[in-house]
Amino acid sequence: MTLGVSATDTSFTRVRLATSNAITTATYVINEAGEESRFVNANVTVQPAPSVTEYVFRTTDTATAGKFAQLEFLNNTIPSQVTSNANLALTNVSYANWWRGDSTTGAKRITTSVFGYPTVATDMPATGTQAYTSTVVGKLVDVTAGVTTVSRVGGTVTVSVNFSTGLVDLAFNLNRTPEAGGATTAFGAFTAQGAIPTKQNLFSGSFTGSTTLSGTLTGGFFGSQGKEIGIAFAANGTIGGGNQRLVGVIVGKK
């Protein structure tokens, strides 16, 4: 498999999402630059429930082997079924991760996004340092010795924001679990930094201090006084003799 470019974007128009808190009757739609998938309740493979952190839709095309679309939502948008994980029971920000493939051997594409109720720019803190209790999830595509593996990414991340200087510092310790099944293994420890322009609620930045992983991040603040944070990231790696593309999201709260 030939890996394409991974990147982040702060645009409010590149990715469009139609969601609902009435999962049994709604149609969920995600569109990136004209490519679109639609999902209904019959496509749910993981139902929203307090015991799960994500609910998942998946469709498959019976006419084309290996053609699919999968949409994974943070489980905090269905009021009666919000996750019991206190770190993810967020009220102002959520995420949706869209994974799809054209065929068994065809192109695979992954889109990550955060959405919610942005902090009004005039309500952003201007002083002080704030740690955000955060969670990281994502996907990793690895090509090593001609073998392609798609893995779910987890692990830990620390997020610290200095509102006086506008710097956002992140430290990742990531692991990976093959989507096809298998053991969870370490992927690596990385750092990144973003910068908040003056009087803005959005920021962008890049991975730092690594010779084997480079990439970008974009993020924003949500709720009153930047109560919650959401970040999307994308990176290219050459780790352990392989070639990787890493994409994911971070959500957190004060």
UniProtKB/TrEMBL annotation:
Lineage: superkingdom: Bacteria
Identification of the protein by name: Transferrin-binding protein B C-lobe/N-lobe beta barrel domain-containing protein
Species the sequence originates in: Sphingomonas naasensis
